[in-house]
Amino acid sequence: xxxxxxxxxxxxxxxxxxxxxxxxxxxxxxxxxxxxxxxxxxxxxxxxxxxxxxxxxxxxxxxxxxxxxxxxxxxxxxxxxxxxxxxxxxxxxxxxxxxxxxxxxxxxxxxxxxxxxxxxxxxxxxxxxxxxxxxxxxxxxxxxxxxxxxxxxxxxxxxxxxxxxxxxxxxxxxxxxxxxxxxxx
Length: 185
Description:
Residues 166-185 are annotated as: Disordered. The structure is a single chain. By secondary structure, the protein is of the alpha+beta class. Helix content is 44%, strand content 14%. The radius of gyration is 18 Å and the shape is globular. The termini are far apart. The longest helix has 21 residues, at 136-156. The protein has one domain.
């Protein structure tokens, strides 16, 4: 899925997603007070941590958040139901993605990306016991990627990235739908 981050007319950012099914969606940002776009932090964090159930993996799988709008393409006949299934299936990982992206975003926004590992470990400790599943070097990679993307965004006013197909979660099967052949008698 192609994702284009750009400045919006409101002074914030907007992410435009070109999904593999031909649907083009727009996700507005609410980050006018930040130098680094928050949704860009989601991309960098979710991509580096290989979180398929975060914001961008969910969108690639068919989720449409309530603040998004369809810009082009033809949504599936069951788009709303599919979106609900994906969002329900990714609920926990979306919350985790929000928390982790917030920590990486804070570290880069404040100009001290080297704090990202400590911030992520602290946030992880509020949810889980033990160490996070990502070593400090991987967390530092997320902060580095966000730093680079933010610099590109600042310089050009737009950033184009690709969300990989292997980080798209499977869409949960609708309840009450059986798969397979019926036995013949």
